[in-house]
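lol ok so funny story. i was supposed to be doing the assay writeup but got distracted and ended up predicting the structure for this chain instead. priorities right. anyway since i did it might as well share w the group, maybe its usefull for someone
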Amino acid sequence: MESLALFVGILLLVLILSGPLAIGLTFVKTTKQSSKILLRVLICLFSAIGIGLGVMLLLQGIAIGAKLMAIFAIAASAFALKREFKSK
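and the output, tada:
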């Protein structure tokens, strides 16, 4: 049972940190083309993890606190994607 609690704790930690981490990466300015591509890949990866875990938790029958965390993760990840890929 403690391994299940550890798994849930890690899952929620990743859920909470993926969106703000993706938003933080959007503030990094690079000049090289290869670093821009790597940065966009990382932003997409963290956003996909946040949106995926958020939707997974929203569809489960869980408490309202976890659903609020899932909504926060989805909103933060969507904002990071919008900020990175908006037309300039």
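The chain has a mean pLDDT of 92. The CA atoms of residues 14 and 50 lie 8 Å apart.
back to the writeup now i swear
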